[in-house]
C-alpha cells in the first residue's frame, strides 16, 4: 500500500512537469533523437534562456538526459515510454475534440 502511494505521488510530480505546453513541445522535438539547445531554440522559436530552464527541470526530474560534446549540450528522452505516454494522451484529446465537434454539429442541425 505504501509503495502504491509513492507511485501515485511520483506520477503526479511527472504530470506537473508535463503540464507545460512548451515541455510537451520539447518532448515532441526530441522524439526522433537528440538535439542541441541551439537546435531546440530554432525548432521551438523560444528564447534560449526559456528553453534552457525547461530542459534543466526536465533533466532534473529524469524525463530528459544530456551529454556534452565540446561546447554543445545534447538532450534526449531518458525513457521512450515518455514519448508513448504523450502520444497516447494526444490521441485521447483528439478523440475528445472530434466527439465534441460531432456533438456541436448535431446541436446545430437540430
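^ C-alpha cells above, recovered residues below v
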Amino acid at each position: 500500500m505504501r509503495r502504491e502511494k509513492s507511485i501515485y505521488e511520483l506520477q503526479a510530480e511527472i504530470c506537473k512537469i508535463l503540464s507545460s505546453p512548451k515541455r510537451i513541445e520539447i518532448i515532441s522535438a526530441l522524439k526522433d533523437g537528440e538535439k542541441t539547445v541551439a537546435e531546440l531554440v530554432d525548432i521551438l522559436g523560444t528564447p534560449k534562456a526559456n528553453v534552457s530552464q525547461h530542459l534543466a527541470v526536465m533533466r532534473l526530474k529524469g524525463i530528459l538526459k544530456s551529454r556534452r560534446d565540446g561546447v554543445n549540450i545534447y538532450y534526449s528522452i531518458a525513457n521512450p515510454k515518455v514519448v508513448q505516454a504523450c502520444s497516447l494522451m494526444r490521441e485521447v484529446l483528439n478523440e475528445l475534440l472530434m466527439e465534441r465537434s460531432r456533438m456541436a454539429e448535431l446541436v446545430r442541425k437540430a
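Residues 80-109 form the longest helix (30 residues).
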